[in-house]
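User: Show me an example of a complex going from sequences to structure tokens.

Assistant: Sure. Here are the input components:
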Amino acid sequence: MRLHLMIPPDGVATPLDFGIDAKRGDNGFAKASRAAWLRSFADQRLRDWLLAWPLPLAVLALWALAAHFEWIAPQVLPSPDAVALTLKESLLSGELWANLQVSLMRVLAGFAIGLVGGLALGVAMGLSPTVKDYVYPLFKAFAQVPVLGWLPLLMLLVGIDEALKIILISKAALVPIALNTYKGIQNVPTRFIEVGRVLRFTRRQMLTKVVFPAALAPIWNGIRYGFTHAWLALVVVELLASSEGLGYMIVYGRQLFQLDVVLAAVVVVGAVGYTLDKALAAIETRLLGWRKEAF
Amino acid sequence: MTPTIVPKPPRGWVPRPLRGFVIPVLLLAAWWAAVRFGWSSSPLLVAPSKVWQTGIDQVVSSKVFAALGASLWRDLIGFAIGAGAGLGVGALLGASRLAEKLVGPSFHTLKQISLFAWIPLLSVWFGLGDAAKVAFLSLAAFFPVVLNTFEGIRSVPPDLLEVARVLKFTPAQRWRNVILPAASPSIFAGIHLGLIYAWLATLGAEYLLVSGEGIGNLMIDGREHFWMDLVLFGVFVVGLVGFTLNWIASRIEARALAWRGRSVAQF
């Protein structure tokens, strides 16, 4: 149960889920042989996988029918094959890759800055009450204004160039990372600290062996939220002020009323967001793998 | 620093409750000094007093209230639609394994699409007016509410359901007395998140679908005319609204969950 609270929910089964299922399965079929259990487990997986398809396929079919019989004007809803074709063409012409690369560079640069800043701020506030007293109220006030609230101000201050995008993306990543790091360190159970004291840990040992391992899960949670927010900020800033990138593709398609371009770009935005999220989830299983043994 | 009547601070020369004000006051002083001594000739450097004046003007002429009213009204409608639908879908996904398997994967894929990427599509489908904005806002509130409702219901301890079975509860009783109370912290966390996302989306919708009035339009206007004072005032108002929404949500949460002792849902 606690695992589910810690890990941002995503429906696709991760190795972690398998672990839990495996335990349940073992209890349920104590006498069944391992092979039989594995088979039933595979069946289960296959069934789940198959059940996931009817809905999207039905939507796709409806979409294709609507486009075929022109229930809806093609300017408003292009046919699925038009979208697929556009997707394929922009993939082959390299246009999509160029835009994707620009977007990825932006989000990574902004996220890296936000990550370093957020961790530093969060650790400083978590470890030092003095820093917390001075900085936390201002930080809270700063966090109250959403990324988009800062946008017009930043546009005036730094223009609409690369700097604007990087600053905005790093702000989006910084706030959840700093907040979760701070809370994570604050919420390290007192009994852990007491054990460390009993063992006469030095401050350094206390930090590396007790505080940071115990705070790792919430910190990582913050990093994942930070990344989601950074991706969100990237898309919106590219929609508003950009001449390249995935967001720009969407705006451009919209302006020319080429909804197939818009939809193709939306699909790519979704796919990339999904892939990056999965990558972070995979790192998480490695990074926090030692915790799971306990459950 | 001004001497204050505090019984001997524990450490440092600023008493703890006042420490939070030190940096903002220093920043404000630096800003004031920058204007006063002309450190920069940029027209963007406006005096703090000018921002204050603009704020007063906006409040007195009630322009800001009109803009804020329009934004909040949309925010509220969109949030109500999105959260309502989200509660329903989340409850369905949580209560039925079959529904989860049928709809869950599609839902989780869909949620990966960055929220704002929907706006251009919605603008084609719903026009540039309030309909598109409200549709977008409800989408923003929908996702977190579904996720948290689903998680909350799925995490209801099986022991509680067993008790309900032993007591031969009807389904209505089971939902009312067991499932919803046990899932409420997570559900409220979802509603809280939905509220925050809806507010973010309100601003985004006003920037991207420039039509009508709203606090976002006010700021965009200020930006286009290089009225720094108006933009700064807008940032302040946006922060204030965000803070108030957060505060209201926490109050309701604390109220509704008071019976549980300490709330688990800390956001």
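The lines above are the inputs; the final block is the predicted structure for all two components together. Chain A has two domains: 10-52, 94-292.
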